[in-house]
Amino acid sequence: MNRSVKLFTTHELLFIIGIIGISFSSIFVRWSEADVAVIAMYRLYLTNLLLLPFVWKYRSSMFHLSARQWLWLAASGVMLALHFLLWMASLRLTTVASSTVILTLEPVFVMIGSYFLFRTKANRMMLLGMGIALIGSVVIGSSDFGLSPQALLGDLLSLLGAAAVAVHMLIGKELRKDVNAFAYNFWVFLFAATSLALYNLVQGNAFGGYSSKEWGIFLLLAIVPTLFGHYLFNWLLQYMKAAAVSMSVLGEPVIASLLAWMLLKEPLTGYQLGAGLFILFGVWLFIRFGKEKEPAG
Question: Full-prediction pTM beyond 0.85?
Fold first, then answer.
């Protein structure tokens, strides 16, 4: 009896699409001249606008939530807003390669948090995959780590952004046990956007007067890295471990660095290309052996 070899499962294929989607985020941010808090705010508000036609379909799961669930949705949204604010700010201070490479520390934060909160343990193959990917991540960004105060500040902001999104992922993992994927994404994006709106109000950032180019970038950010990136990852939390989903950031530096080389003319060395293969192999190992079984039926 012949058996066909399936290279990727449906969830793994969606995971890869998500990695490609989020990799465009840094490019779009670099193309924009607006304040990073404004970019993040409109990115999320426009995402909610695109999701609005489907609210009626999911109304039963969107509004029948407990006070505890509303509280955690708000907390998850605030953490996502903080991640965008910190990470996008880092892109203005350091290279795309350096900024995205530092985000690869997110799975470390997630795995530590998962152990203390959910008693989740990693098997040897998962640890091997993480180790390979982290080694590749260090190499791919080594030539770009700046020694100037500005670059070091950008590195620090990216590190703090990684910690914030790790908290967002852990909260989402717990909430997604009882909250529908659409409801979770819609409310978290709305809470995150509103948090950023309050920040912009306090900072005195302009809410209007932007060119059609800027609005086009805001819309691209809503569609490509948010819907085809973060939305997919939040949905996959039901079927994969939080640490496994967070490994998406290890594939992002590879694609983001290639895009920065092609579109932003940022230099890309042979070391970075070779390390990129290490990262992709490590990601593949981690998601292959870190995948949770799908619910029966």
Answer: no
